[in-house]
C-alpha cells in the first residue's frame, strides 16, 4: 500500500522537523544525532562549543564522524580510553547512560549513548553530553566543608550524634561510638538496633525514646543525666542533651544529640554532699552554741544548741539582730564595741550576756572570727559557751570576799577601840 504525501502532510512534517531542530538547538545539553553511516543528521551549538568546532551547526549536516573521536581525543584526560569507549558503544549498539568523562581543562561531562531502532532496523544513534563541572565543584566544596565540620565534631571530647525526626542516625562521632565499623553500621538505624547489638537494657532505650519524642513534639531542648554501666562494670553518669533543629515551616528537621561523661563531677558532687552533711552534723551536734552573722549583726545561721540553751528555735533566731537578745546598758555597749572592732580585726574574744526566751540572763563566752571569701560579703562565725554558772560562782565569791573583808575591817576597828580604852 502506497502512502501519498499531500502538500499539507509535507508542510506538517517540515513544521515538526523545525520544531525538533529548534528544541535540540536550545537544549542545555550538547546533542549530536548520527545516522547508521555515522553521518550527522542534527547537531546543536552547545556540541560545537564543547568540542571547539568552528563551523555553525547547520553547516555540519551530512558530515561523516568516523574520525571525530580520534580528532577530539586530545581534549580528554584519558584520550585512548575516550576513543576505545566510543568504538565499543558503536559496536555493541546498547544504551549507555551517565558515563563520566573528564577533559584536560577540568571540565566534567556525563555522556549518554542512545541507539535508534525502527522495527529492529538500526538507524543511527544519539550522543548527549551534559556539562556537570559546576555541580561537581559545588559537590566537592560541600564535601570538603562537611569533612571539615565532621573533623571538628570527631575531635570534640563529647558524644555528638545527629538524628532524623524518626530517631534514625545520620551521624555519630568516635566519642559516641568508638568502633569505626559499628559507627558506620549505625547510620540509618536507631538506638533500639544498637542496644540489641550491645545487649543493653531495654529500659534505657525506652527512656531515650520517650525523651526524644518529647523533643520532637514540643520542639524544645531537653537535658537529663543518664546512669549507665561501663564494660568494666563501673557506674557512669552521662549528661545528655537533645536539641531540635527546625526548618522554614517550623517543623523539626533534625535532632542534635550531645552527651558528656560527668561521672567525675558526679563523684565530686557526692563527696561534697557527704562532706557538707558531716560539717552540718558537726555544726548541729556541737555542744557549743555556733552561729553566724553579717557585718550588720543580723544572724544568718545557728545550730540546734540554741534551743536547749536559750529556748528559741532556729527559725526564731535566724534573721534577727543580735542586739534584740541583749539587755540595755553595759551589754549594748559591749555589742556596739564588738561590731566596730570586727570591722578591722579577724578574731575577738569576750563575754556577752543575752536574754533567753524565758527571760533569764545567759552569759556566753564568745570566740568570734571574721571570714572573707572571694566575691562574697564577709561574715562572722561565733563559737559561744555558756559560763553562766561560772559567772554566778565568781559573783558569789566576790560577795563572800567582800563580806569577809568587811568583817575583818569591822573586827580590826573594834580591836583598835578596845586597845585604846
Give a structural overview:
By secondary structure, this protein is of the alpha+beta class. The chain has 13 helices and 15 strands. It has a five-stranded antiparallel sheet with strand order 2-1-5-4-3. A hairpin with a 7-residue loop joins strand 14 (361-371) and strand 15 (379-386). The longest helix is centred in the last third of the chain and has 33 residues, at 388-420. The protein is rod-shaped and about 165 Å long. The chain starts with 6 loop residues before the first helix and ends with a helix.
Keywords for this structure?
15 strands; five-stranded antiparallel sheet; 42% helix; single chain; alpha+beta; rod-shaped; 421 residues
Fraction of residues in H or I helices: 40-55%
Which runs of at least 5 residues are low in confidence (pLDDT < 50)? none
Find the structural class using helix and strand composition: alpha+beta
**Morphology call:** rod-shaped
The separation of the N and C termini measures 188 Å
Provide the gyration radius in Å.
49 Å
Q: Helical element count? A: 13
Mean pLDDT: 87
**How does the major sheet shape up?**
5 strands, antiparallel
Spatial arrangement of strands, main beta sheet: 2-1-5-4-3
Portion of residues in beta strands equals 25-35%
**Can you count the beta strands?**
15
Helix-strand pattern, N to C? HEEHHHEEEHEEHHHEEEHEEHHHEEEH
